[in-house]
Amino acid sequence: EFMQASWDIEEVQAEGIQHLASFVKDKSAFPYLQTCTEVITLAMKTHTDSLDLQVEGCTLLLEILSQALEQGVMMALGESVASCLLHTVRKHSENEEFLSMLCTLLMMVSASEVAAENLRKVGIIPDLLSILRRFLHNDKICSSCCAVLWSLAVSENNADQAVLASALPVTSAVLQEHLQNGVVAESACSALWALALQGCLADSDYEPTAALLLDALRMNPERAVLVKNGCLALASLVRLSEAAALAILLDSKGSGVELIKEEYRLHLDEPGVAEALCLLMNEMVQYDEVMLDMRSQKVEKLLCEVKLQFPFS
Length: 313
Known about the structure:
2 domains, mainly alpha
């Protein structure tokens, strides 16, 4: 009430945020802090020129969302919060250090389907792409933005086909730039999977995207989530185009089928990885020429192994 009574006075908003922040360590205060997100974001939107207030507000929101995740509470933030966050993103689009924090916040917010839908509604995707282009070198920003893109693109009622199509070159550039950084590559592979699911690729995109995903698998073989999401992205590409299946077979850096076998053996205890690999192979054998090649590479033997390893899946 103290903050709402004096929106226009920056000192009031700053003191209000600092006072709310003093309750963060008190677990019993969490249910009340949850109800303050709109007040905090509105204070940030009203005083966007004050970087100190932006940083303190963003830090407090991160604390509240972190506690929510720890307690298994999904916070579905409303459209007004999404609108305020977008306003803040636009106002500080050149400030790399603050954007890094803000993009982490957006990633946590977008974990909720409702909040992700609200971010999509207010039109945040072009801003995310712009940030990625400007800060392609920043691994933290790239990882967070790709995670947000994934959350927004997998939305079932997606009406942003044209906007999402423009995300492909940027997301591919992120993966190319950070192939050896497992965290970023994992996030970018997930985003590419979502874009493939939404049919955002042109005919000329299938082969280079498949080759790039294979590179990500080769460079990060130990990361189970990356392998799983990379294979699901490849499966989506193969479902759409035989060119992608042939690109996997004939990759210039070595057979994609051999890579699949190696990845399976590395993650024998991961049913999610085995399932993704099987899904990919199932898509590949829809093409006669590809199936013959897979047969010659003794894929049946691998499938029998999978069946023995996971008899109840």
